[in-house]
UniProtKB/TrEMBL annotation:
UniProt KW Nucleotide-binding keyword: no
Xylose isomerase-like TIM barrel domain mapped to chain residues: 23-247
rRNA-binding in keyword set: no
Protein name listed in UniProt: Sugar phosphate isomerase/epimerase family protein
GO molecular function: isomerase activity
InterPro entries tied to this protein: IolE/XylAMocC-like (IPR050312), Xyl_isomerase-like_sf (IPR036237), Xyl_isomerase-like_TIM-brl (IPR013022)
Lineage: Bacteria, Bacillati, Bacillota, Bacilli, Bacillales
Pfam families: AP_endonuc_2
The entry's keywords: Isomerase
């Protein structure tokens, strides 16, 4: 397997960026994916590197010490009343740290507004040579592959792409053949985790699983092989696998190690040839 792996900050949310970088280095990752845009969620640490100069210095030192790289930052949400300019300091941080991508998602039902603001976020990011990947989320306003592609086509920004989360794809009910039709240029990285096959019946339970109880790859009911084999072979994989119970049992470092090992073991069996599905349809 030559596919590069990153660890998403949600997997080790209570670790500072520097702590996560050192853990990622010791456990075999190639990248880290950081969360320097503070979402103001209850109990979520604030890793606003733009305004925490000591944390920024520590983060830069950790990258220098380990040789790891920053894959992406998150989360540039599109919501009613938001101002894209508020994300500018985080984009500057991403560029200074050598990042490549910005993760975005849409939480407004006003489609025209969403397209306008997403386009503005893309324009801001482009100043720093950053791409913006739009993720569909089952509890957000844009929650399917078709919805996401509609926004991307309407916004029509050259640095915009799509970010597939294996959990979200499974929950959306989208079909693999539709994923296989997407141009390869839209893919820059994807999120990997597993989950129970059956979706929760309540939004609260969906949120809980999303942030607290995702599963090792191959442990649940998501068609991981089908999804991964429908994404271009060289696309980096960011492991987003928060699981509070396992972190309490194992600690962040051992848990991060097992997340990566189980993912590599599964993909070495099920994705070694990448199935050449995209080649069959000329992508």
């Amino acid at each position: 397997m030559t596919r590069p792996f990153s660890i998403a900050h949600l997997t080790a949310l209570n670790c500072t960026p520097a702590e996560m970088i050192y853990i990622a280095s010791r456990t075999g990752y190639d990248f880290v994916s950081l969360r320097p845009i503070n979402m103001g969620l209850p109990g979520e640490p604030n890793y606003d590197l733009a305004n925490n100069k000591q944390m920024m210095r520590d983060t830069k030192a950790a990258f220098a010490d380990t040789g790891l790289r920053l894959l992406d930052i998150e989360l540039a949400r599109i919501f009613d009343g938001m101002d894209p300019l508020n994300y500018l300091p985080a984009f500057e941080v991403a560029a200074e740290l050598g990042g490549r991508h910005v993760l975005s998602s849409i939480w407004t039902d006003n489609r025209n507004y969403a397209i306008e603001k997403f386009g503005e976020v893309c324009d801001l990011a482009k100043q720093f040579d950053l791409t913006v990947e739009l993720e569909f989320v089952p509890i957000a306003s844009v929650r399917s592959l078709a919805d996401t592609l509609n926004i991307l086509h309407s916004a029509n920004r050259s640095n915009a792409g799509i970010m597939i989360d294996t959990h979200h794809f499974h929950r959306s009910g989208d079909q693999l053949e539709d994923l296989q039709k997407i141009p390869s240029s839209y893919f820059r990285y994807f999120h990997l985790c597993d989950a129970p096959s059956q979706a929760p019946t309540s939004v609260d339970e969906m949120k809980r699983i999303l942030r607290e109880e995702r599963l090792y790859v191959g442990e649940g009911g998501v068609d991981i092989a089908g999804i991964v084999n429908s994404i271009p072979v060289n696309t980096p994989c960011s492991i987003e696998m928060p699981n509070i119970k396992r972190v309490k049992e194992l600690g962040y470092e051992e848990y991060a190690r097992r997340c990566l090992e189980t993912a590599k073991d599964f993909l070495s069996i099920h994705a070694t040839e990448e199935k050449s599905l995209r080649k069959k349809i000329g992508l």
